[in-house]
Amino acid sequence: MRFDEAYSGNVFIGSHPNYKESQVVIYGMPMDWTVSYRPGSRFGPGQIRKVSIGLEEYSPYLDREMSDVKYFDAGDIPLPFGNAQRSLDMIEDYIDSLLKDGKFPLGLGGEHLVSWPVIKAMYKKYPDLAIIHMDAHTDLRTEYEGEPLSHSTPIRKAAELIGPHNIYSFGIRSGMKEEFKWAKENGMHIAKFEVLEPLKKVLPKLAGRPVYVTIDIDVLDPAHAPGTGTVDAGGITSKELLASIHEIARSELKMVGADLVEVAPIYDHSEQTANTASKLLREMLLGWV
Known about the structure:
By secondary structure, the protein is an alpha/beta fold.
């Protein structure tokens, strides 16, 4: 994949034409090879780009315009269909290259397993890395029906790599009893059901540390984001998620990268979910870089 040339397909609105001059690289990880319920998130990155044309380029929340940040849309990593391990290796190699060039990686999924190789690459550069994880699900399984490469495992893999005490999960409302037990016994922070208020309490503890944020769109209630593979009732509102993004923007974190995953447009013909994701991405760009 060439990431020093402008992507020839749909691009996220306002994308800068020059890779070398850009602070941020937006890239897609179109993989849904391991999902256990509904596939389709591999089409998420393209749909988020497509609907971004409807965005205003000014954020009244942050009083910034998209032209204030130079970001380059590199398109999707050409992942080999059905080959999970090779896909993960390609993602990790790609992030290694971005970090070597001093870029802020901003990824679009794809299923949540794609965050795992990104975190591996991040940890190689930032050994004191902390992760903020917003999701409906714990994602702390070691395997799913005997398969260790599963969208239900990335946070467990990350916790075993960087230490459970360096993982901060928010909005969690679904998972096996054993997952919650493991998290509690191993010092991992899990805030059930809500994001904003528990996040406010955690952010001062992470001041100055390199932080990677991974957001699964299903942290939102299905009323706000029906277009995802594993919907789960009882989630937060889009207003709360936006407020949480802005709370991070006002903090003293050293943001080093982020991703937004699990948008599956086939289940949302109104394009509500992709439009929400597009706006979230705008606020992440303007608030975290």
